[in-house]
Amino acid sequence: MSTIESASPSSTESASPSSAGTGAARTARSPWAGTASAEELARWRGVAEAVAEQLRPGALERDRTGDPRAALEVLRASGLANLVVPAENGGHGAHWETAFEVIRTVSRADASLGQILGYHYLNQACVAFYGDPDGRERWYRASAERNLFWSDAFNPVSPDLSFTADGDGYLLNGVKRFATGAAATDVVISGAIAEGGRHDGELVVFALDSRRAGVEHPDDWDHLGQRASASGSIRFTDVRITEADVIGVDREEPFAALVTPGVQLLLANVYLAGAQGALEQARELVLARSNAWFLSGVERYADDPTVHRVLGELVAQTAAVEALADRLARRFDEAVALGAATTEADRGRIEVEIAALKVASTRAALEVTNRVFEVTGASATANRIGLDLFWRNVRTYTLHDPVDYKSIEVGAHFLDGRLQPVSLYT
Question: How many CB atoms lie within 10 A of CB 238?
C-alpha cells in the first residue's frame, strides 16, 4: 500500500464536500484559534535554530546537486512536519506565527528547504481550508502518524489539468510546472474542474501519493537559484483519482481563499531570511579580514566607517521588514481563526497588508543580498564561500509573481479601498 493511499480516508469515510458549507460544520471550519504564546514561540524557535545549524553546512552542496531529500529527513526527525497539525489530530497544534518564524529560521540556512517546508504547511492546511471538519481530522491524523511532507501542483499559469469521469472515479492527465517539492515529498495536492461524474463542473481539490502510478517527475528544474527546492514539473498520465483522494471542493469561500495570503506571507518570510542570512555571513567575513582599504585610515575592514555605514543601512532596512513580518504573522492567526465567519472584507484586508510586506521584503532582500559584496570585497565572490547563494535564491524566488502588481494592489486599496480579484496570486 502506498504512502498516501494508506493515509487517505476510505471511500465510505471520505469528506463530503457538499456538507462543508452547512450546519455545525461551518461553525468549526477553522482548526486554529488564538495566537502563539511566548513559550510556544521559544520552544519551536529553539528546534528550528538547531535544525538550521545542522543544515547550514550542506547548503552549498545541495545547491549544486539539487537534491533536498536527505535534508528533509532532518526536518522530519525534528517534528517540524506536524507543527501546525491540531493537537487533537496528533500534531503539535502550533500557530501560524510560529510556523512563519520556523520557515524564516530554516530559510536563513537554506532557502530551498524553507520554501519546501512553507509550502508543506500551507498545502497540508488545505484539508482545513477546503475540507469539512470530519474529513480534515482523518487527513490530519494520517499525515501526522506518518510524518508526511506535502507539496502541490497548483500553478495557475500552466494549462489546466484534465479531470474526466471514469467509472466511480476520475482520470487525471496533464502537466504542471513549478511543482515545488513534489519530486521529494510524500503527498501532492492539486485541483481540477471535473468533467462528468459526481463532481461535474466543480473545482475538486484532491491529494495523492507523489509516487502513484502515472505520476512522473521529469527532474527539469535548472534555474539560477532555489536549486534544491525540487521545483520542476510534474506529469500526470491517466492517474486514477477516487473519492478517497478528494479533500473537498473549492466553493470560493473567503475562508478557503485565505490560503493565498498565506502563500504570499511565506514568500515574504523567505525573502527576509535571504537578507538576514546574507548579513550574518557578511558580518563573519568582515570580522575575519585583517587588512583594510589603504585610504581608510584604519587597520581593519571592521573599523572602516564606510563599512559601518553600508551595513547600518542594510541592517536597518532588514529590521523594519522583520517587524512588519512579525506583526502580519500574528494577524494571519487572527484572520484564520474566524473560520466560516470570514468575510470578503476580512480576507481583502489581510491580503493587502501582506502585499505591502511582499513589496518591502522584495526590495530589501534584493538590495541587501547585492550590496553585502560592497563591504566583503572581491574575495567574497569565491565559489567556495557561497555568499552569492543568498542573492541567487532571492533573485529567483522574487520572480514568483510580479512585485509591481503587488505595489498596484496596495496603492489602489490606499486610494479608494479597491480590492483585486481573488486568485492564487492575490
Answer: 12
